[in-house]
Every structure is written in structure tokens, then in C-alpha cells.
Amino acid sequence: MERTGVGWLSAVILSLVVFISVSIGASDRAIGASSALVPAGVPRSLAPEQVRGLQKGEEMGLARSAELNGYPNPARVLEAARTGKIDLFADQREAIERVRAAAEAKAQDLGRQILAQEASLEAGFRIGRVADAELSQRVQEIAGGLAELRLTHLRAHLLTAALLRPEQIEEYYQFRGDFAPSPGRVLGY
User: Residue 32: its pLDDT value, please?
Assistant: First the structure.
């Protein structure tokens, strides 16, 4: 996707809105919490689940569109293989582990950046020094990081599906207790 124009900005802002709204209830409960309970540098504006997910590089539902349509989560594929629910060839297991590790490392880096940007934005409001032009730039930077985070997780699903045979994808969805992709859909190699 080209990173110019109103379309890209709209997609980024929509991703940000969806991400923030996922735990609005938890955030609302946290607003009344004492700031002494929040570690330094951790934005109070995010729910604890969001902070943990960003720190650990968790998916947090950002790749649900892939998962629901026949593109498995690499970490869950490896879990299914460890429990004997999916048979993987050694080269598949190694390749999927590389996909998982690379996505997790990148997601953790992006998560740290997003948390730092959120903390900076919150600090600006706390000290009363946020100008409208600056606000727009800061929110766009955070949204861009969130878009990159989602892209990282979606790509991991895409790469994982390409490494699996259709019957392995079906086994994965049986392991997950979910429906397999639509009949006639050809995935994997």
C-alpha cells in the first residue's frame, strides 16, 4: 500500500481507532487508578493488556482477518505440532519458527516504539504542552506504528500458510476448534 494520500491516512487512523477501542472498558477502569501503580514510562492511557501485548510482541487480534480466512498463526501452528495435532516436516518446522521469531522480534521493537510515543503524547497533555499541529503529527506517528505492527502479524500468517499443505491447514483449524477455510480454496504448497 502506498503511504501517501488520504486513503492511507484513513486506513492508519482506522487501525488506531480499532486498536484503542478494543480495551476501552479496561482503560476506563484504569483512569481512576493511582499513578503510583503505573511504572515510569508506561502510558496510563492504555489498558494493561495492551501494554503487555505491545511489550511482548503479541498479536492482540491484529491479524484476525488472516486467521479467520485460512492463514494460520505461526506460533499456534508450532504449538499444534508440539502436541502432535499437525505433522510438520523438519524444514517446515524450522521455516515456521523463523517466521514466528522474526515477527515477534519486529513486533516487540514496534511495540516499544508505540509505547514510547504514547507515553510522550500523554506527558505532553500532562504538562499542558500539546499544540494542534504537534498533536496531529504525534497521532499519525502512533497510527503508522500500529499499521506496521498489524502488517508484521498479517505477513507472518501469509508466510506460514505458504509453508503448509492444505491438509495441514485443515488439521490446524481442527486443532483450534474452528472452521476450515471455504471449500475449493487452495492454500499452501
Answer: 42
